[in-house]
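Exercise 3.2. Students should predict the tertiary structure of the chain below and write it as structure tokens, then compare their answer with the key that follows.

Predict this chain's 3D structure.
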Amino acid sequence: MKMNHLIFLSTLMLMSASFLSYADNEISDKETGCKIWNSKSLVGYTISWAGQCKNGKADGTGSLQWFYNKRPEGRYDGDYVLGKMQGHGTYAMDDGSRYIGEFQNNLRSGRGAYLWADGTRYEGDYQNNMMDGKGTIYWVDGSYYVGEFQQDKKFGFGKLSLVLNNPYIKEFADSGKWIGNYYIVEGVFADDDLIASCPSEVACIKQLTQVMQVNGRINAKVKN
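Answer key:
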């Protein structure tokens, strides 16, 4: 569906552009010598760590400030374990976006909330820096999706609620219903696409099972 691809493409572009990714190298605070696992490129980057050190690495609760060519670029306030973000923390980007939640092995993993600079917001499960599990994403016009995600895409049962006058309502003309000022679309999604419209997860499973059974009988006839 065009709307879903456009929304998630813009979302993922913002995420990849604003959130630092990490490689298996270290960078040191020049004042204290305390080390953390560094970003992919060391060129032009420096850090300032205010917190405890263990075996020469950031460990415990503290604050990390990133600089690029001496200009502040990103800040993390939270837990570190042996130089990696581990536990709970807040990562604020210089564009105004921020993530508040759990980290594992330097990645967003667990429960968290991501707020983009334009006001888009996600609250829910993360795995390996991606929306994965159950969660809700809210768009700035008041529309929202609540349901299952996999690798930053809608995947599984969910409900998409589009506010009145949303231009993408026409994409779901035969798949939803009006409740107040919202056009509601419920069903099973796969890689952001709606593959079955149904009022509950149980109903969707039954519907998809019937479709697979019919397809199986058709394939059997073709082979014979």
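Discussion points: The chain has two domains: 26-117, 135-216. The mean pLDDT is 84.
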